[in-house]
Design a protein that fits this description.
Elements lengths: L1 H28 L6 H7 L1 H14 L2 H5 L5 H9 L3 H9 L4 H8 L2 H12 L6 H18 L9 H21 L6 H22 L6 H28 L3 H5 L5 H11 L7 H28 L1
Helix pairs in contact: 1-12, 1-14, 2-11, 3-12, 5-10, 5-11, 6-10, 7-10, 7-14, 8-10, 9-15, 10-12, 11-12
């Protein structure tokens, strides 16, 4: 169990960096004529590389087979609106704000862990989540002039993301992590095809390179995340808190690449959220000791 939580934490750490890189590229394209379905369509070859490799490796059928197809298929359907939400919201709000709002996922995840997974959380986990929640409030600033209605759309996406990770953790035995990854991406890519046919667009070599890079980032990030929550088992809530560290990467990218700055309250919120991720680390160690 100790190794599994270390592996889960490591995978989530790198997945967070890859998610931010993907969001940064979407942030760039959200200001162009490229729509979310163009973005997904041109990323299909990257996604197909994995199942093609599995086919020639002789393990594709094994990983697609499930003891219960509903959880992975339903999870794949929930993933469909996520690129659309990312595109329309990043057009209206800053990248660091988008990432920070996504950090409400551990709060929702903890509620799921308590009521549906029967996890026993320790004081440090609750402290981590409380600090993170305060940070999110500083970013959203409800009632302030800087409040943006698109913040709420991001939160809808956050809820969907949390449900998808919960499904992997709750029903980890019905499919392999590779199977969850494949079913998680196939529906969004399939839907992009007819939408692209209705409204096709040509991209430059540089744009295609960026889209391909984003496809690599998001597919590896999704695979790492799926594997992490499948391994996490009874430590879903404490491991989930590590996603708070995405705030740091997103803030750096927003400032140095897009010249996007937040107001003082939002930066204070970002500090709280990063601190929440740091506090989550000893909570995992404590949880491991209590489990032994």
């Amino acid at each position: 169990m100790k190794k599994s939580i270390i592996y889960s934490s490591t995978l989530l750490f790198f997945a967070g960096i890859l998610f931010v890189f993907n969001d940064a590229i979407i942030n760039y394209f959200s200001q162009t004529d490229i729509k979310f379905y163009h973005f997904i369509f041109y990323g299909i070859p990257i996604f197909l590389c994995f199942p093609i490799y599995l086919y020639f490796n002789g393990t594709l059928k094994k990983n697609l087979k499930c003891s219960n197809y509903f959880p992975p298929v339903f999870r794949g359907i929930l993933n469909i609106p996520l690129p659309f939400i990312a595109f329309i919201t990043l057009e209206q709000i800053k990248l660091p704000e988008f990432t920070i709002l996504n950090m409400t996922a551990p709060l929702i995840g903890t509620i799921f862990a308590i009521f549906f997974l029967n996890e026993k959380l320790n004081f440090l986990t609750y402290a981590s989540l409380l600090i993170g929640f305060l940070g999110v409030l500083f970013v959203i600033q409800p009632g302030f002039e800087s409040f943006n209605i698109y913040y709420l759309i991001v939160l809808v996406g956050v809820f969907l993301i949390t449900v998808t990770t919960f499904i992997v953790n709750k029903y980890s035995n019905v499919s392999t992590n590779i199977g969850y990854f494949l079913y998680g991406g196939i529906f969004a890519h399939l839907i992009s095809i007819p939408l692209f046919i209705i409204n096709p667009i040509k991209v430059t070599i540089i744009e295609y390179s960026l889209i391909s890079s984003a496809a690599l980032f998001i597919n590896f990030a999704m695979f790492f995340t799926t594997t992490a929550f499948k391994l996490a088992q009874k430590h879903y809530a404490s491991v989930f808190s590590l996603v708070y560290l995405q705030v740091l990467w997103s803030s750096l990218v927003g400032i140095f690449i897009f010249n996007e700055y937040m107001n003082l309250y939002a930066y204070i919120g970002g500090v709280f959220i990063v601190l929440s991720g740091i506090v989550s680390l000893p909570s995992q160690i404590k949880q491991l000791k209590e489990a032994n």
